[in-house]
Amino acid sequence: MQGSIRIAVYEYFLSQKNDLAADLLKDYFNGAVALVSQTLAYGIDRGEIVPLDTEQTARHIVLVLEGLNTLAMGTSVPPKLIEEQTGLIMNMLVKA
Fold this sequence. Notes:
The protein is mainly α.
């Protein structure tokens, strides 16, 4: 991920101490949460995902994925860690 535009974007927004930068990051986060929440609701309606609080769960999923992305910017993320985290999410969502 070295040289990634994502790193440059993070560096830019983290270096900015203004409302515009904060609002853009908040909008990005809220948009991702809304998309994941809608996807979860669709899965619940189809009976493929256990009933749960879609917004709270969506926030958790987005935070985990962003955390893995951020971690990957500074170090190598072992595939086992990614599998572990996505597996935990899947276990929360999918009916046995």
